[in-house]
Amino acid sequence: MSFKAFKTALACTLSAAMLLGAAACGTKDEATSGSGSSSSSSTTGYDVSGIKKDASIAAMLPDSVTKDGKLTVGMELTYAPAEFLKEDGKTPVGYDVDLSNALGKVFGLDTQIVSASFDSIVPSVGSKYDLGITSLTITKERMDAVNFVSYYKAGATWVVKKGNPQKVDTSDLCGKKIAVQTGTVEEEDANKAAKQCKADGKKAIDVLSSKLQTDAATNVVTGKADVFYADSPVAGYAISQTDGQLEPLGKDEGSVKQGIAIAKNDDQTTKAVQKAVQKLMDDGTYMKILKHWGVQSGALSEAEINPTELS
Question: Which of 47, 104, 178, 205 fits a 20 to 30 Å CA distance from 303?
Answer without folding.
Answer: 47
